[in-house]
Amino acid sequence: MAGGLVKYRHLSRNSSARQALLRGLVTSLVAHEHIQTTYAKAKEAQRLAEKLITYAKRDNEETRRKAQAILYTPHDLLPKLFGELRQRYTERPGGYTRVLRTEPRNTYDQAPSAILELVDGPRDARFMMTAKAVAFDKDSGKRHTELTMKNVAKVTRYRKDGKTAFDDMVASFRGLKTRGEGKKGKKAVEKDAAA
């Protein structure tokens, strides 16, 4: 019987090319903790990355071999995967990665672009965006919205020393003009600074 539901995205590649692409994306994700690619590739790489971190949390000989088969540079990245990342996600039951949609990078094909990142890492984009929103609300004297408070709870829940790190990030954003600063030209900003 032909047809049926597609269980995964084919990404316009045959099986071996698709597996090589996903292995490369996941290897870069473990190395840099943050990659930018198309949305479809990010969603497929997310599945493999979640599986890889689950292997690291189990930490036995079988899971080490499976993780070694996925990564392109296992000798460089296995210590990080089974050390730092395993410690970071011991309490988290799942959801180790996040896909954030971004504007298309390429102006020619307008492919939907996305960022794939490890959560609770040093380059966590949602953590920074939430801290920026809280700092803006405090600077302008507004009350925090329900969505902002929900995001604060999410980004600090499993992060080690999450509340203090979040407060430090908010303090670093306080006083910065983060919205509407691009409306003036360079000469107008220099003129205001001179006055």
Question: What labels describe this entry?
Answer:
195 residues, mainly alpha, three-stranded antiparallel β-sheet, globular, Ribosomal_bL17_CS, ribonucleoprotein, structural constituent of ribosome, Ribosomal_bL17_sf
Q: Mind explaining what this structure looks like?
A:
Helices cover 57% and strands 9% of the residues. With 195 residues, it is mostly helical. The chain has a 3-stranded antiparallel sheet, covered by helices on one side. The model has no long low-confidence stretch (mean pLDDT 89).
Query: Regions with pLDDT < 50 over 5+ consecutive residues?
Result: none
How much of the residues is beta strand, in percent? 5-15%
State the strand order across the main sheet: 1-3-2
Q: Mean of the pLDDT scores?
A: 89
**What does the overall shape look like?**
globular
How far apart the termini lie comes to 77 Å
Sheet with the most strands? 3 strands, antiparallel
What's the SSE pattern? HEHHHEEHHHH
Structural class: mainly alpha
Q: What is the C-alpha radius of gyration, as a whole number of Å?
A: 21 Å
| SS elements, strand count | 3
List the total number of helices. Answer: 8
As a percent range, the share of helical residues equals 55-70%
Pfam family, one: Ribosomal_L17
Family: Belongs to the bacterial ribosomal protein bL17 family.
Subcellular location: Mitochondrion
Keywords: Mitochondrion, Ribonucleoprotein, Ribosomal protein
Per-chain topology:
Blueprint (H helix, E strand, L loop, with lengths): L14 H18 L1 E5 H20 L2 H10 L3 H15 L8 E6 L10 E6 L6 H16 L5 H12 L4 H12 L12 H9 L1
Antiparallel strand pairs: 1-3, 2-3
Helix pairs in contact: 1-2, 2-3, 3-4, 5-6, 5-7
